[in-house]
């Protein structure tokens, strides 16, 4: 049986080994709904310009919908002899409609057809990723009120650095995820361009209307250069980059929470439904979901490299190498989607070990920077104040006490400007209360940020908060 892609120029049948080597139906069948969507729009356009009669258009569109339902219900036969999902659907159309089915491919090539299907699929997948990111943002945000009074040690170089409010930490991830969402939206703009009608590489002599197809498929614009269309996989690579950065952010979060859930940190209790046990050690509660989230990020990042290497040496226009773009792309989307699906309920279900955190909060001299800035406000140069506080920390370490527990005479021996008023900023609670700058962990500033995020995530009306400087209007 001759397939639509095999013309009369060939004098021999395709070697079965070649069929196995070149097939993509094993992975591109997931494009079936988008192929039918694109083909339906193409048929409707062909009828508008007079290439198809209204009756032929209706026959083709109805049969395409029937084929789609058969694929959806897993009763449609697939064969590697037909290479890909595009050939499967077209061959089925021809078998059922004869010459009417053969007319569908008028004015297009598999090159622009594949590009269109893939753009439609990526567009939908990006929308799902955006939804997953927003769900995870809400999971972090929804912890803010309940954890508002909890103070956490903030780290640099994995060493205790300064104290931060727990909601300040939760909102840090909201910010990261917001940038991820912005990148998803930007990527969607460059993805949402109509390739159909560029044909193989040079366009077509037939009177097609590409803008009609653009509108039917809800694309934002039409690709402007037919030669570029066949080779353009920028949107694929950009999607892989966006997913890689999302995966990296998820991996960072997973690593922190893996550490936090250890007996050594004892900051966090993970929900048991997201943990597994050991085959030999009955006491173990292993953070497998977090570990796999961290591990799966490697796959996503590796797929980005695969795609960059795939396109780096390709001349214009289409080359069969581009068939290999789909497995890494599909896997990247599926992996990140699954990670996001599990991340949101895991974040919502975890519990901070408040007693464990508080018991160790005075370790690490988290108020040292606050003491240094207290001296700066007394008129002491920053580098001088930095050295003075360092020497006081050293003395406190030698005595096994906190900075707040150092006697006043010890503080004044370091500098005479250190009087009893220093007690107002020493200690973790007081150090947190001393922060002032925009975007800091100051309680009033964190409260302001919570209200901003409430407005962004739940579309509430902007509020007005009072501060020492007057009214602060919260922007959406």
From TrEMBL:
GO terms for biological process: L-arginine biosynthetic process via ornithine. It catalyses: 2-(N(omega)-L-arginino)succinate = fumarate + L-arginine. GO terms for molecular function: argininosuccinate lyase activity. The keyword Lyase applies. Pfam families: ASL_C2, Lyase_1. Belongs to the lyase 1 family. Argininosuccinate lyase subfamily. This is Argininosuccinate lyase. The lineage of its organism: Bacteria, Pseudomonadati, Planctomycetota, Planctomycetia, Pirellulales.
């Amino acid at each position: 049986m001759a397939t639509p892609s095999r013309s009369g120029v060939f004098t021999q049948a395709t070697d079965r080994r070649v069929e196995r080597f070149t097939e993509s139906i094993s992975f591109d069948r997931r494009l079936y709904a988008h192929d039918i969507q694109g083909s339906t729009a193409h048929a409707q356009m062909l009828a508008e310009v007079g290439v198809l009669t209204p009756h032929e258009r209706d026959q083709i569109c109805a049969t395409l919908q029937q084929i789609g339902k058969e694929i959806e219900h897993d009763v449609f036969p697939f064969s590697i002899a037909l290479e890909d999902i595009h050939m499967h659907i077209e061959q089925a159309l021809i078998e059922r409609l004869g010459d009417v089915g053969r007319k569908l491919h008028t004015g297009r090539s598999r090159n622009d057809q594949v590009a269109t299907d893939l753009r439609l699929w990526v567009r939908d997948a990006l929308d799902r990723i955006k939804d997953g990111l927003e769900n995870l943002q809400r999971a972090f945000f929804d912890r803010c009120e309940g954890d508002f009074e909890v103070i956490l040690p903030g780290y640099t170089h994995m060493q205790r650095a300064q104290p931060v409010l727990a909601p300040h930490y939760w909102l840090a991830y909201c910010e990261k995820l917001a940038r991820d969402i912005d990148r998803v939206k930007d990527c969607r703009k460059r993805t949402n361009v109509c390739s159909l009608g560029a044909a193989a590489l040079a366009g077509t002599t037939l009177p097609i209307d590409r803008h009609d197809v653009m509108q039917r498929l809800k694309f934002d614009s039409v690709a402007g250069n037919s030669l570029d269309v066949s080779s353009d996989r920028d949107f694929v690579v950009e999607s892989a980059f966006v997913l890689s950065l999302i995966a990296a952010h998820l991996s960072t979060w997973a690593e922190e929470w893996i550490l936090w859930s250890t007996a050594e940190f004892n900051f966090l209790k993970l929900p048991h439904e997201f943990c597994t046990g050991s085959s030999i050690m009955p006491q173990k509660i292993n953070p497998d979901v977090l570990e796999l989230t961290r591990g799966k990020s490697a796959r996503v990042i590796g797929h980005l490299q695969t795609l960059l290497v795939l396109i780096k040496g390709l001349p214009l226009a289409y080359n069969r190498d581009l068939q290999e773009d789909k497995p890494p792309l599909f896997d990247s989307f599926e992996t990140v989607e699954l990670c996001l699906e599990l991340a949101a309920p895991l974040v919502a279900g975890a519990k901070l070990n408040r007693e464990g955190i508080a018991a160790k909060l005075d370790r690490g001299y988290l108020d040292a920077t606050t003491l240094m800035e207290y001296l700066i406000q007394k008129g002491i140069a920053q580098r001088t104040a930095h050295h003075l506080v360092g020497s006081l920390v050293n003395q406190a370490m030698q005595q096994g006490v906190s900075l707040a527990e150092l006697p006043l005479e010890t503080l004044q021996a370091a500098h005479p400007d250190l009087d009893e008023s220093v007690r107002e900023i020493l200690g973790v609670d007081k150090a947190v209360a001393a922060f002032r700058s925009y975007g800091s962990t100051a309680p009033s500033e964190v409260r302001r940020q919570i209200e901003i995020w409430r407005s962004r995530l739940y579309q509430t009306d902007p509020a007005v908060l009072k501060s020492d400087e007057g009214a602060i209007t919260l922007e959406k």
